[in-house]
Amino acid sequence: MAFIFEIPYRAAADPFLPRVLGAMFLPMLIALAVWGALFWACGDTWLNPHLYLLAALLGLLHFAPLFNFLATVYMGLAFTHYGLARLDELRIGRSA
């Protein structure tokens, strides 16, 4: 019975161990560094208002229960096609 009462005590003390803190915060810090570097390198491309409009419109699909399962796949395809169309426009503009 003493073991049952020890579990909440250990659960409350474990999050402050260095290995647990590292496992919790290190992936977040790495992700912030990677996304920050990507934004610094490609920020002008990401600040496109059409991209935000596409995200807002397609984000509405997640509110419909029937479309919720397929919305993620559809959003991925839509963003891929939008990005490839923009890349094609850029390549045509450079070659002219």
Quickly list its features.
2 domains, 96 residues
Description:
Helix content is 83%, strand content 0%. By secondary structure, it is an all-alpha fold. The protein has 2 domains: 1-42; 48-96. The mean pLDDT is 84.
Outline the fold blueprint.
Layout lengths: L1 H12 L4 H29 L2 H11 L8 H28 L1
How much of the sequence lies in strands comes to: under 5%
The overall average pLDDT, rounded, is: 84
Distance between the termini: 79 Å
Low-confidence stretches: none
Basic shape: elongated
In terms of structural class, how would the helical and strand content be classed? mainly alpha
Please write the string of helix (H) and strand (E) elements. Answer: HHHH
Helix content: over 70%
Q: Main beta sheet: strand number and arrangement? A: none
Radius of gyration: 22 Å
Task: Please provide the count of β strands.
Answer: 0
Overall tally of domains: 2
How many alpha or pi helices? 4
Brief overview:
83% of the residues lie in helices and 0% in strands. The protein has 96 residues and is an all-alpha fold.
